[in-house]
Design a protein that fits this description.
- The complex is a heterodimer of chains A (518) and B (428).
- Chain A is of the alpha/beta class and 518 residues long.
- Chain A is 44% helix and 12% strand.
- In chain A, helix 1 packs across helix 6 and helix 21 crosses helix 22.
- The radius of gyration of chain A is 27 Å and the shape is globular.
- The relative contact order of chain A is 0.08.
- Chain B is α/β, with parallel strands linked by helices.
- Chain B contains 17 helices and 14 strands.
- In chain B, helix 15 links the parallel strand 13 and strand 14.
- The chains are: A alpha/beta (518), B alpha/beta (428).
- The interface between A and B is large, with 58 and 64 residues.
Chain lengths: 518, 428
């Protein structure tokens, strides 16, 4: 048993729902007790979908337990077919139905429906949401992509047409999947590549039958599509591109790899990338971003991409990197080693909170949970990965991928931080009567606040024993700009504790500054 | 079975409403959801769900951002290893509870909340609660109830929780004066208003269940009369009666008429003189009337369709029909307690179609055919219906917003008027 307040991922059948809801013409019959329909509102509220997810729940109750539940499943399945007339159906059990051991696959087969019915085995007590999405998509692709072509058979219509690829991985409830797909489709089109099928998002079971016609596959989200792409590689000999085009550098590499597979020249597209992010990062106002300490946590795809962008494209120092997705722990560990740190692989947000406190970052890049942790700790934060709340399914176009995605990322990662000029002015005028931290904003009259803001230190350190500050040292500390004062206080106290000093003097303050100075 | 069959011909009951039952797919919350408001009410209680990742995911989805304000609820997620053998699972549960109590020494009352998985594998949480109670006494009391979807629908979770508290209530002294017990979690502000009104009526002593602190449970005995503040408390009522308490039959305190009827039932039971009743209630009635008037204009003549959710549907429909002049296309409720709702059913317009239970697709078809002006439904249906052109009011808000009593009557009407006002206002 695991004590849990907050979970990064839902159970695996939520992953299956994400695939089903993303597609057209597919229906999911889920053997589940009354109450499991709560999952509908993730799609109708967080993603603001205008239709119910294509899911029929059996919603059995206690009085149905016994021989009845299998019968309920069969009638729900038959009625769902009659009502929705899908091209194909997936059937499976949620955690409770897994325990009562009805066999959805066998029961559905007995109905002899005139469409493909794909049974899903989603072990709810071992696996989680992303695994469920990956498994569901893999099962669908296996069942529907048709027989493998004979060895050496030429690809259908390969002559006299533009290169053709599939885009694999985008689902419902995916963080920025909608805009990522639009961005990558545009990029591929500029390169001269046509998209055969995008799946699961927007695809029908019939579309999945056409997957084999493409020359290669683009895996946008490995968590969801790697297994399916590996199958297609084996069965259809389709190579795959697994470089995730998040960030300017990664997008450039992606373009080069895709162009190489398609036998095209990437130079014209790369020459006219249209991204402002590289220039913005080089402009002098960004100098202050150098060495900003960033803590990064999320799904593996987004955490890895964010770490590379943070270091190479913004000049941050990555002081923490982790993921809740155990399936990709190896990749994240390898990347963390590149930054000289140890990766954090956990799905317990309290571990993440402790790691953030220990790393003392200046910005946190994470999920909805890290946003709340950062708020508690008084740290700037940007959201880079699911799980996310409703505000991260925005109305405006905001991809993470491609060259426009790089622009979006620059803004997203920099806005929570103080911009360079602002930081400089605040430092310069810190003793000014309008600029000191006790002053209210000038548009509110600039009067001193009666209640001083709580110092950041109260949440960042849990000092075992408090160390006394000499009055002059305390006074000197007040001269340090308020937005770095908490860190200075924590560092000085740590320095003093390590040396078993009873009193912090001005000397100690500056010794510590020299010691920790970067 | 899950038949999407047309409704069978309905036997009309004495009260003049057409009462039908329906079975099939249900789009409702399970009883675990009650934790989200119950933990706010009982301030030193902790709710530990013993369930699956689905249960944890549900509570986090229902609790939204509240999850970060050091909430007093959590889930002990059952994993594969636990499913291997039951004895091991009890040890695991003890370990989780010990860790929890170490982290939260302020907890005085711990609820072990059963879920579908824990009920299906027949994990004996009542024995676990007994065992843990002995171990953690006297600092922490451990109780259990089930909030599973197979047994409870949404607000029935509160019923199961309060019913678990009843045996813990102290015995009333044999010669105690007659006392009033108000049953059902109400917003603190509403509870305080009602306590003031009872005091003005000269009714006392008055206690509430649940109390705000676990150690302050009210006494109960043959001299206790109880008044239900919520319509979903069947098991709690039964448990109170087993301890000798007597129910005061009343409509529920929604809207001005409901509040007056509710207070009058108590006043009659406590022999409050008519003049005193009129004097105590007149200001509230007058204020409620002033607050309701502007919304009546917008709601009058409009047709409402209720999907089943909380069992509040019948009293809400009564309020909208009688005080706001709305028409009722259909009133769905997940469960209908005939005795507790007798006063409400009698007040509904004759012929109102009340449907107990649900067959989701069939009911959605009926809603589309009825083209109501306002559809009261859950968040899973609201946006899809809006996209089809039906104005909706999402029902869960009616559980989290103070809506009972005179002072909230206007707010209650506004909750239904606002979606219509918004529709009229938007030009996109």
């Amino acid at each position: 048993m695991q004590l849990t307040v907050w979970t990064y991922e839902g159970p695996p059948h939520i992953g299956a729902m994400r695939v089903a809801t993303a597609m057209r013409g597919l229906h999911y019959v889920l053997h589940a007790p009354q109450g499991d329909t709560y999952a509908d509102l993730l799609f109708t509220m967080i993603e603001r979908r205008d239709a119910r997810p294509p899911v029929t729940y059996t919603t059995f109750q206690a009085r149905d337990l016994g021989a009845d539940t299998a019968e309920i499943f069969k009638s729900a399945c038959a009625e769902a077919y009659e009502r929705f007339r899908p091209e194909a159906m997936i059937v499976g059990a949620s955690c409770t139905a897994e325990l009562i051991q009805d066999d959805p696959g066998g029961l559905a087969k007995a109905l002899n429906l005139p469409i493909p019915v794909i049974p899903l085995e989603l072990p709810a007590y071992q696996k989680k949401e992303n695994w469920g999405a990956s498994e569901t998509f893999y099962r669908l692709v296996r069942a529907l992509s048709g027989p493998a072509p004979a060895p050496g058979a030429p690809r259908l219509g390969a002559e006299g047409r533009r290169p053709l690829c599939n885009i694999l991985g985008p689902t419902a409830l995916g963080f920025r999947h909608r805009d990522d797909v639009a961005e990558i489709r545009g990029l591929l089109n500029r390169l001269g590549i046509d998209v055969n099928v995008t799946a699961p998002m927007g695809a029908s079971p019939t579309d999945l039958a056409r997957l084999g016609a493409a020359d290669f596959n683009v895996v946008l989200y490995p968590e969801i599509a790697r297994a399916a792409a590996q199958y297609l590689q084996k069965a259809f000999g389709q190579p795959m591109v697994e470089t995730v085009p998040i960030g300017f550098g990664a997008t450039t590499r992606f373009v080069e790899e895709v162009a190489a597979l398609a036998g095209l020249d990437p130079a014209p597209v790369l020459a006219e990338h249209g991204s402002r992010a590289p220039w913005y990062a080089r402009s002098v106002d960004s100098t202050y971003l150098t060495g900003k300490r960033a803590f990064i946590f999320g799904d593996a795809t987004h955490a890895l991409a964010a770490a590379r962008v943070a270091r190479s494209e913004l000049g941050f120092a990555v002081v923490g990197l982790g993921t809740y997705g155990r399936e990709f722990a190896r990749e994240v560990r390898a990347e963390a080693a590149e930054h000289g740190i140890e990766a954090l692989i956990t799905d317990d947000y309290l571990d993440v909170e402790a790691a953030i406190q220990a790393a003392a970052p200046e910005i946190v890049l994470g999920t909805q949970m890290e946003r709340h942790v950062a708020k508690r700790l008084g740290l700037p934060c940007a959201v880079i990965s699911a799980p996310v709340h409703v505000q991260d399914f925005p109305a405006r176009t905001s991809p993470q991928m491609g060259f426009e995605g790089a622009n979006v990322l620059f803004d997203t990662l920099v806005h929570p931080l103080m911009m360079g000029l602002e930081e400089h002015l605040l430092g310069m005028f810190r003793e000014d009567r309008e600029f000191h931290d006790g002053a209210a904003p000038s548009h509110l009259g600039g009067k001193a606040r009666t209640v001083p803001p709580e110092p950041v230190t109260t949440v960042t350190v849990a000092a075992p024993a408090s160390i006394a500050w000499a009055a002059e040292a305390e006074k000197e500390l007040r001269k340090i700009p308020f937005f770095v004062r908490g860190k200075a206080r924590a560092n000085t106290e740590r320095f003093a504790r390590e040396r078993a000093l009873a009193l912090i003097t001005i000397e100690t303050l500056y010794d510590a500054k020299a010691h920790f100075g970067r | 079975m899950n038949a999407h069959a047309p409704l069978p011909p309905a036997p009309s009951e004495g009260c003049g409403v057409s009462l039908r039952q329906e079975r099939g797919q249900r789009a409702v919350f399970c009883g675990l959801t009650g934790i989200v408001w119950l933990h706010r009410k009982i301030q030193d209680a902790f709710f530990l769900v013993v369930g699956s990742r689905t249960c944890a995911h549900l509570i986090q989805s229902a609790a939204g951002v509240m999850i970060f304000a050091e909430p007093r609820f959590a889930t002990a997620i059952i994993d594969e290893r636990d499913l291997a053998g039951l004895a091991d699972m009890n040890e695991e549960l003890d370990r989780v509870v010990s860790r929890l109590i170490e982290r939260r020494p302020d907890i005085r009352l711990l609820f072990l909340v059963g879920s579908c998985p824990s009920e299906v594998i027949k994990l004996d949480l009542s024995r676990a609660a007994l065992r843990l109670s002995q171990r953690l006494a006297p600092a922490v009391r451990v109780l259990n109830y089930s909030g599973s979807g197979i047994e409870t629908t949404f607000t029935q979770g509160e019923d199961a929780c309060l019913a678990a508290l009843v045996p813990e209530m102290p015995r009333e002294a044999p010669n105690a004066a007659p006392s009033l017990l108000v049953v059902g979690a109400l917003a603190d502000v509403v509870e305080d208003q009602f306590l003031r009104l009872f005091s003005e009526l000269g009714i006392g002593p008055v206690h509430v269940l649940p109390a705000r602190r676990a150690g302050a449970l009210p006494p109960v005995g043959p001299n206790t009369s109880y008044l239900l503040a919520q319509p979903f408390l069947a098991d709690t009522a039964r448990a109170l009666e087993a301890r000798g308490a007597t129910r005061i039959a009343a409509p529920f305190p929604l809207g001005s008429e409901g509040t007056t009827g509710w207070l009058r039932a108590a006043a009659d039971a406590f022999l409050v003189p008519e003049a005193r009743f009129a004097a105590a209630t007149a200001p509230g009635i007058a204020r409620a009337e002033r607050a309701l008037a502007p919304h009546r204009e917008r709601l009058s003549g409009k047709r409402a369709f209720f999907f089943p959710d909380s069992q509040l549907e019948v009293p809400l429909a009564r309020f909208l029909a009688r005080e706001m002049g709305m028409e009722l296309a259909e009133v769905g409720t997940p469960y209908l307690h005939r005795a507790h709702l007798a006063e409400e059913l009698a007040l509904l317009p004759p012929g109102t179609r009340v449907v107990e239970g649900q067959s989701l697709d069939a009911q959605m078809d009926r809603a589309r055919a009825a083209r109501p002006d306002l559809t009261v439904c859950g968040l899973g249906l609201a946006n899809p219906f809006e996209a089809e052109g039906l104005a909706t009011k999402w029902s869960i808000e009616l559980l989290f917003t103070p809506i009972q009593g005179y002072e909230q009557a206007g707010d209650l009407a506004e909750l239904f008027a606002r979606p219509l006002l918004r529709r009229a206002r938007l030009e996109v």
